[in-house]
Amino acid sequence: MNGTDVQPSVPPGVRLGQVSFVWRPWLVLVTLLLMTATFLVFCLSMGVGDFPISLPRVIATILGRGEQVDEFVIMDLRLPRAMAGLVVGIALGVSGAITQSIARNPLASPDVLGITGGASAVAVFLVTVSGGTAAAIVNSVGLSAAALAGGLGTGLLVYFLAWRRGVDGFRLILIGISVSAVMEAITTWLLVTADIRDVAKSQAWLVGSLDDRAWSEVRVALWGTLALLVVVSAVAFQFKPLHFGDEVAAGLGVRYARVRAVLLLCAVLLAGMAVSAAGPVPFVALVAPQVAMRLVRSPTPPTVASGVVGALLLIGSDLVARTALPISLPVGVVTAAIGGPFLVCLLVRANRR
Hints:
Elements: E1 13-16, E2 19-22, H1 25-47, H2 55-62, H3 68-103, H4 115-128, H5 132-141, H6 143-162, H7 169-193, H8 196-206, H9 215-239, H10 246-251, H11 256-278, H12 284-295, H13 303-323, H14 331-352
Antiparallel strand pairs: 1-2
């Protein structure tokens, strides 16, 4: 070694009062470009329909400068569906980034860990079970709240079953796959034994769809997701050292068990919120963090970029589902067509390693 050795470049740090962070220009640039693309696709999706509206008119209407007809079509008829896609995509993307970071495995997602399966099982149970008590529960609580409770309960079950003086990522995934299989079996049994009319209602919800979204559903998902994102942002700085292992995190003074539990709870609630608003849309939480990680050149799934990619993927898939074929399809069909091959690629890469 000599004096001419080149030292590795270190990203510059930024300090704002008592808060400091590393400035990564590429990450910020890519995230801003993804946000711009998401906004354009978001506006484009609201312009497509039986009454087509150009992109400049859609943007003008959103900014409050549109014509009265455009305002009615966009704000009352199409905006709830687009907002549902935006909120659900962000919730699934962030949830997938958290679970993959905690498990340190690209295969970890709410789909694999059984969270969406538990939400689906509880929702199908309430739809298919007959009787006055069940009907009263459905009418008073609603299908969305039941799905959220089912996702939360399944996520907590997986966490406690995987706990052995800490949470190991490999054990978490194995238990999640087992619980997911059990929930799918319960859902199948409920569909086989139910009335054919209830089965039709359940199947339409199980595919994952943004059709016929109401403002009431969107508002609940929006405010719930925003509240959870605030909690994730507050804990995110303490979560960074966990990527280097529990021993390093403990040496830096991070209470890693508590931080991991809070973030995993937020991930479960975000996934449950998404399922309650749009049904179990498959593979978005799996694909979005991996795509974002490669775009921003990060060693771990970036939370903000993952949420933006999730929104872009879901809104874009919904646009394709409505326009690419002669008939309109649920968005879950398109995300499954994208996520299936992506999952196979991840498995092949993991096998090679």
